[in-house]
Design goal:
This protein is α+β, with helices and mostly antiparallel strands and 277 residues long. The protein contains 8 helices and 14 strands. The strands form 4 sheets. The chain has a 6-stranded antiparallel sheet, with helices on both faces. The longest helix is centred in the middle third of the chain and has 18 residues.
Length: 277
């Protein structure tokens, strides 16, 4: 049997598939994977990954660095709900660094070149919850990937799971009973530790990063995608048995760079960031 951190249950090998902890479309790579429940991965996990990959702030960064997923499609921003301001005809507008601006008319079944509207309004929607829900998902898979049964037995990972599976309004009164601490990518909180997390994510651009930091009574996870900080979640934990030496000193960091995944201690990552190593 195989433990799935997403569902918190044992599943048979035939019920699992390999999950990239950071999807390829978000800067992930082979080698940083974990077997998880296939049903969850196809139904819920892919929705979170796909939603973040197509988030306006993320897709523009993917476009800049030509980061593609399994489909090998060009990462471009698409507004499928635009319209011609003069005729009211529905239009789809796509914008990318390599493809440029393209306007598609579903009624005509073609891309407009000559004779199209002089201006087209576009709508940009930001899902304010998706990044933090994705961080919770990565916290579960990477926490178990790195720390194994110590993570499973000694971390209050059900709160990661609650954040992953629900938007804040859906949690109702339960949200006030949660002991997790969170920091969203759009937060203006500039606490010292959070500044370090954000700076470390920026320092590895254009690559992605996973940071895991066990501390006194808590376990924190933070994620950077292509140099952009996605957020941090800290939950209660007993980390007294967690390793704190060599590549685990003060925590563990995985950088997904072009040479392959680089794994180092949080202390080493700090030293490299400030030029001491």
């Amino acid at each position: 049997m195989t433990y799935c951190p997403y569902t918190d249950r044992e599943v048979s090998p035939s019920e699992t598939n390999r999950e990239h902890i950071i999807p390829l479309a978000l800067g992930g790579m082979n080698g940083v994977e974990i077997p998880v429940c296939r049903t969850f991965n196809s139904e819920a996990g892919s929705k979170l990954d796909g939603a973040l990959a197509n988030d306006f702030l993320v897709v523009t960064k993917r476009d800049r660095y030509a980061v593609k997923g399994h489909s090998d499609k060009e990462p471009v921003f698409v507004d499928r709900n635009s319209s011609d301001p003069e005729t009211g005809k529905p239009l789809q507008v796509s914008l990318g660094q390599r493809e440029g601006l393209r306007i598609y008319s579903p009624m005509d079944g073609r891309f407009l070149t000559d004779g199209g509207p002089k201006s087209v309004p576009i709508q940009i929607h930001l899902d304010v919850d998706i990044a933090l829900r994705f961080v919770a998902k990565v916290a579960l898979s990477s926490g178990y990937f790195v720390y194994g049964d110590s993570f499973r037995s000694n971390v209050k990972h059900q709160e990661f799971r609650a954040i992953m599976n629900h938007r804040p309004p859906d949690l109702g009164e339960a949200i006030y009973e949660m002991e997790a601490r969170v920091d969203d990518r759009l937060s203006t909180d500039m606490g010292e530790q959070l500044q370090v997390f954000r700076s470390m994510c920026r320092a590895v651009e254009p690559y992605s990063l996973i940071g895991l930091v066990p501390g006194p009574g808590r376990f924190a996870a933070y994620v950077g995608i292509l140099g952009d900080y996605m957020g941090m979640i800290s939950v209660l934990a007993d980390v007294s048995t967690f390793p704190n030496h060599d590549t685990f000193r003060w925590g563990h960091v995985i950088v997904l760079n072009k040479q392959g995944p680089t794994r180092l201690s949080f202390r080493s990552a700090l030293e490299k960031m400030v030029g001491l190593a």
